[in-house]
C-alpha cells in the first residue's frame, strides 16, 4: 500500500477545515444557548450530584421502577425544580442540582427516602462541588494545557528545526480543536458533559499525538540527509509511507484498550475513553495528512524567502 | 552473549522482586474504589486577616485533625492542599452529613477556670479521657470493627462533656491569643510552650491566674470543647497573677509534644472559618463495581493488544508480549513501591499505558523489517532496528512525560493520580522495550541457530528477498 499524501493535500486540508468549522459552529450554538462552548459538568461550574440506588435492587425484589414524575414532584417541593433527573437501570436515581449544603442535601435525601423508598448506603454517590472550586479546577486544567503546549514546543524546537516544531504544534491544535468540536456536538445532541477528566484527555491527546508527528518528522529529517537531491515532496511522501504501518499499528494498539474501557469501564470512564479515541484517531490523521503536507508546502515556498533562513 | 546473560539475570531479579513487592505491599486504593467520603475544606480569610500563611494552614489542619479524630473513623487522612485547602479522607463513610457538620466552622479555643471543689473528680475524669484517647489512637490505626470505635468515641465525648462542666468560662478565648510557640526551658534540658495574649487577653489571663495560683486547680484549655491542656499556676503568682500578657506552660514536654500543643493553640486562635467546598462520596459496593469493571476493561485491553502483536509481528510480537506482561508487572510493583494511590482515572492511565508501551516495540520491529528487506542479516537488522528507532522512542516518550508533568503539577487529586500512573508507565515501558524486548530477541537470534534460517518469522514474505546469512543464499537457507 502506498498513499500519495502530497498530491491530495488540498483534500486533506479541506476535510479538516470542514470538520473543525462544524465543531466551531456547534460551540457557537452551544454558547448562545447555555453560555459556554461545551456543556460543563459540575466539576467546573459547581453543583451537587446525588446518585441513589433503591435498597431492593440488590436483592432484585423491587416492585416498580423509580417514577420520574414523582421525583420531580419532590424536587419541586424542595425548591429544586430546575434540577436534572436521570433514572439508571430502573432502580438508580441520579439528581443533578445547584450546590446543596449539608442541611439541604440531608433533607432532600430524607424526603426522597420517604416518598420513593429506602436507598442502599453502600451504592450511594455524592458529588458536591462549590462554585469557586469548579472555577479553580477549570483554570488549573487550562493552565496545564497551555503549559504542555509550550513545553512540547520548546522541546521540539530544541530537537528539530523551528518550522518542524511550528507545524507539529499546528497539528496539535488541529487535534484538540477537533476533539473539542465533536464534544460540543455531543453536548448539543445527547447532552454529554465535559468534566476534569475531559481536560486530562485533551492533555493526553496532545502528549500522544505529537508522537506520531515526531516519528514522521524524524524520518523526513533522516531522508533529507540521506537523499539531499530529492524534492521535499518526494521525501515527505516516502517518509509518510515508510512510517505508515507504524502509525497505524501504534494507534490501533492504543485504541484497543481504550475501546475496552469504553465498553466495560463503567460510566465514569466512558466519555473519557471516547475523548481519547477521537483524539488519537485525529492525532494519527493529522500527523499523516496535515503536518507532513504543511511542512512540504512551507519548504516549497519561493527560494528567495528560503535563503534568509539559517539552515 | 555475556551482556545478555547479565540483562536476563537483572530482568529475572526485577520480576521476582516485583512479585515480592506486590505480595508484601498491597496496592493502595483510592476512596472512589474502596468507598468513602472525601471532603475538601477551604480555609476562608476574614476581613481582618486577608492572607492565609502556610503556618496558619498547618495550624488549622491540626484543628481539623482533632475534629476528624472525634468522628471515630478508622484510617482517616488529613492533608493540606495548595494555599488554603485541607483535604479530609474518610474511608468507609457513606453518610458524610455528620462529618460535614463537625468539620466545618471556626475553631473554638477557650481558657476556662476550674471550679472549686472539683479537684478529685477532675483527676479521675482527666485520666479516663487520656486512656480513652490513647485507645482510640491505637484502634484507628488498625482496621477494627467500626462499632467498637464508635462506642469508644461516644464514651470519649461523654468524658469531654464531664470535663467541660468542671470548668467555668471567664471570657478568655482564642481571639485573645496572639501566639503560641515551643521554646526550650531556661535550663535548656526540656521544652515548654510560650503563649502571648493581646491587651484584653493579658488582663483576663492575669485575673484568671491570680484566682488559681497556689490552689492546685488548673486552667482548662479547651479546643472545640475538648480539653487539650490543664496547667496549674504556681503560688508565687497569688498576689498579681501572671501579668504582662505572656506566659509559659511547662511540663514534661519533648520538642514534639511542645510543638503539638503550640500548633493546637495557634490553630484555635485563628479566626478563619472553614467550609466544606467539595464532597465526593462513593459507596463501597459502587467502588467494588468500579474495580470489577476496570479489571475487565484492563484484561480485555491487554488481551487484545497481546493478540494483535503476536498475529502481526509473529515471533518478535510474541517476545514483545512477554515484555509487555513484564511491563505490567513492573508498573504495578512500582505503584506499590512509590505508594501511588490507585484511583479510577489512575487505573485508566495504567490501561492506556499498556497500549502505549507497545509503541516502542512497534517502532523497533518496523525498523527491523525495513533492515531485513534492505537485505541485512537478521542479527544486524535487529540491532539496527533498536539503534535507529531509539531517537523516535525518546522523542515520543519525552513529549508524553511533558504532558504528565503539566498535569501533575497543576492538576487536582484525581488528575494527579492519572498523571502519575501514566508517567510511571511511560518510564517503565521505555525500560522494558529497550532491555527486555531487545535482550529476548537477541537471545533468540543468537542462541537458537534454527531461527536465523527463518527470517519469515520476523517478516512475512521476506523469503523472496535476498538474505545473506553467513554467505548462504536465501534458497539454501530455505532448504
Notes on the structure:
The complex is a heterodimer of chains A (311) and B (479). Chain A has 2 domains: 9-40 and 132-306, Multidrug efflux transporter AcrB transmembrane domain (Multidrug efflux transporter AcrB transmembrane fold, Up-down Bundle), CATH 1.20.1640.10; 47-129, 2-Layer Sandwich (Alpha-Beta Plaits). Chain A is 68% helix and 7% strand. Chain A contains 10 helices and 4 strands. Chain A has a 4-stranded antiparallel β-sheet. The mean pLDDT of chain A is 87. With 479 residues, chain B is an alpha+beta fold. Helices cover 59% and strands 16% of the residues of chain B. Chain B has helices at residues 2-24, 31-34, 54-69, 97-103, 119-141, 146-165, 199-212, 255-269, 284-338, 344-373, 378-410, 413-447, 449-452, 474-478; strands spanning 28-29, 36-43, 77-81, 85-91, 109-114, 167-173, 177-184, 191-197, 219-223, 226-229, 246-253, 274-282, 341-342. Classes of the chains: A alpha+beta (311), B alpha+beta (479). Strand 4 of chain A pairs antiparallel with strand 12 (274-282) of chain B, so a sheet runs across the interface.
